[in-house]
Amino acid sequence: SSRLVVLASGSGSNLQALLDAPDLAPEIALVASDRAGATALERAARAGIATSCVPFRGSEDRDAWAEELGEAVAAAAPDLVVLAGFMRVLPPPFVRRWPMFNVHPSLLPAFPGARAVEAALEWGVKVSGATVHFVDEEVDHGPIVAQEAVPVTPDDDAASLHARIQTVEHRLLPAAVRLHAEGRLRSEGRRVHVVD
Ligand code: 3YE
Questions:
Q1: 1 C-alpha vs ligand 1 centroid, how far in Å?
Q2: Could you give the CA distance from residue 19 to residue 132 in angstroms, rounded to a whole number?
Q3: What burial letters (b/e) apply to 111-132, b meaning 16+ CB within 10 Å?
Q4: 177 near 101, Cβ under 8 Å?
Q5: Which of 89, 141, 144 most suits a substitution to test ligand 1, by most atoms within 8 Å of the C-beta?
Q6: DSSP at 25
Q7: Is the reported ipTM for this assembly greater than 0.90?
Q8: Could you identify the atom of ligand 1 that is nearest to the CA of residue 62?
Q9: Predicted TM-score of the model (pTM)
Q10: Is residue 63 classed as helix, strand or coil in its secondary structure?
Q11: Most CB within 10 Å of its CB: which of 7, 127, 151, 182?
């Protein structure tokens, strides 16, 4: 069976979507965070899943922090690592170690970075969306696995647009994780295809 490690900094709603996915083949072996207060850790504990917290101590210490986080992840022996609302840039040695997904609240390559929902509103786009992509050395840059558009409405603020995007994320992420576990993703350069 396939083993999953989920990294989360915040509420962990994407973790909850994975926990709630019926028939999700991969077992969540560990939920790890850079923030002691992350609600994701509570959700994991409540679900009987092992947790690990390696607090981020500042950018000067990123390599040592990532090394420590990497040890915790390695001990769980994942087949796939999922960044689910994880808000730290991971250094190259970490991202090369396992296949890794990130969930991002825009239609990449538009609006990468930490404030994607706000940036989309400020730009005035009429359509935004959600992206699941493989993680590489560059933030919000790796090959796209799944993507779906959502409309931006005139009365939207960041909270309402984010909520609409998250509804899509909670569907796209478990589906993408399932495809990976089933060995149904093929890469051709940057293009990721689903095979039967
Ligand atoms: N790391 C790599 N590639 C990726 N992390 C994430 C995706 C992803 C990744 O595709 N290599 C905002 C992070 C952006 C940011 O710049 N954070 C800084 C400073 C934040 C602060 O001041 O608190 C930091 O320390 O990491 C996950 C999404 C990252 C979002």
A1: 30
A2: 17
A3: beeeebbebbbeeebeebbbbb
A4: yes
A5: 89
A6: -
A7: yes
A8: 25
A9: 0.96
A10: helix
A11: 7
